[in-house]
Specification:
Layout lengths: L25 H7 L6 H14 L1 H7 L2
Helix pairs in contact: 1-2, 2-3
Length: 62
């Protein structure tokens, strides 16, 4: 009989999922940071996403 062995927690690498795995709009980042999606906050979030990429999201939504 063939037995399929499931990987145990000791042998399988952990699978981490972060908020940065999905696409984020500047509006989404501004709201996630607790700010209203005003043109100024959206512009700031856009600049933050362009400058820092996924790190901008990781700081807000780890």
């Amino acid at each position: 009989m063939n037995k399929i062995r499931a990987a145990s927690a000791e042998t399988a690498p952990p699978v981490w999922r972060t908020g940065a795995e999905q696409p984020w709009d500047p509006e989404d980042l501004a709201v996630a940071q607790g700010k209203d999606p005003t043109p100024e906050n959206i512009a700031r979030a856009r600049a933050e996403l362009e400058r820092d990429g996924a790190a901008a999201i990781e700081r807000t939504v780890p």
